[in-house]
## 1
Amino acid sequence: MFNFIQHTFDRILFAVNFILAMQLPGFIQQYSQRIAGHLDEAKYQLNNYQVIADQHYQGDLLLMVNRYQMNSDPGIRSSADLIMNLIDRISTLTEQVEHLLNSDYFYKIFFFIKEIDLSIAKATLVDYQLTVPLHLNAIVTGLVFAIAASLIAHFTANLFRTRTKTLKL
């Protein structure tokens, strides 16, 4: 009876892990689209500052930032910090979009795991709807993750049983 329960649990664990891992390509795609949207918005915001630089600083945004930083008004100095943060954000988001949209599949997964922006991932998850994608990347991801999870569960169970038997002796 115990073997039946264990095998049933293994199959359920495999199926759940397979279905969940199949979601990864779709989630990465939606996450990438959200990152691209943030990039577009940041560029739009920076363009507003660029218009001011074009009008008053011969188009030199960094000159405008330097002048803002030298200003005695703390609000103007804070605006300089805001512009520099926006420039840094555009650089970071551009790098992420490049990697997530133009890399091979396995590098996308690696980059996604390594460089994930948790706030954007949470927002993506809120809007994400589970699907059953039938393309090769999703199936391979599902199989690899499900097999790995099953092997980990199997070896953990065996380790636990071996330790239990050793302790009884």
Note: The two ends are 24 Å apart (CA to CA).
## 2
Amino acid sequence: MTGLSAANAWKRKGSIAGEGDQGDGELRNGDNSKDVVRGAREERPGIRTLRATAHVDGASRGNPGPAACAVILSVEGFPSREIGVYLGETTNNVAEYCGLILALREARAEGVTDLTVISDSQLMVSQVNGEFKVSAEKLVPLHQKVMHLKGGFASFAMRYVPRAENARADKLTGRVLKLVEDIGT
């Protein structure tokens, strides 16, 4: 994200959005003065809401094999960010969880309060939503980390979509793996 981070936009005094812009709202400071910040809404008294959607993906070439994860983080009122990470040798399911953990950490760092995560991993989505038990030993600590991190948001939702609807994150994961192949690491 270039320029001001979402978290800093909340703190910036005098950030006045144009009148009539959709999604603008008044924010009250401790001194009862008002700032209007693009994308801000005061829906709960005293709580500033910042919404985001994160498309996450993880993949391995072989299972286990060279793996990567990716996040497309779209914070309301700001340009979306693409983040891809090479993970080394691991399984596909571990890579999926790493993508989710990356999304949760990045969203928190940006000051997001309400997060929706979209993934094409039906297993992970079902585990995080409490529909499936986590039985694989390697996934237990990752699942626990996710459950801890998601508790830091005022609102958290996660949903499964077919791979075609998560194409941008899937493509970014593939680009990271291809880059690593090309440079021989």
Note: DSSP finds five helices and nine strands in the chain.
